[in-house]
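User:
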Amino acid sequence: MRYLLLLYSAENAGPAEGTPEQAAEMQKWFAYSSELTEAGVHLAGDALHGTDTATTVQVRDGSTVVTDGPFAETKEVLGGFYMIDVENLDEAKKWAAKVPLAPYGSVEIRPILEFG
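Assistant: Predicted structure:
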């Protein structure tokens, strides 16, 4: 079954950019991605630019409204995702707990709806 692991944290959470701590954090991310790949469960994944680069499009009563930024203001923002293929939710939970941002953010697990 395919699942998305949606990665949320405050935009300023985690190590500061350009620090030795961030370099060490990136090694954790590379190791995690490698572990997913070696286990044969990794399908896709990527990091996202910050919310200052987001654009939201809505169509209301036939009119298109475009605004800068995310639609909802929240303390934690979507920063990236992994798509995995595992047997069940319990296995997805185990992978989610290993995501490097789990200690300071949250990982939402969403099963992918299969059509057909």
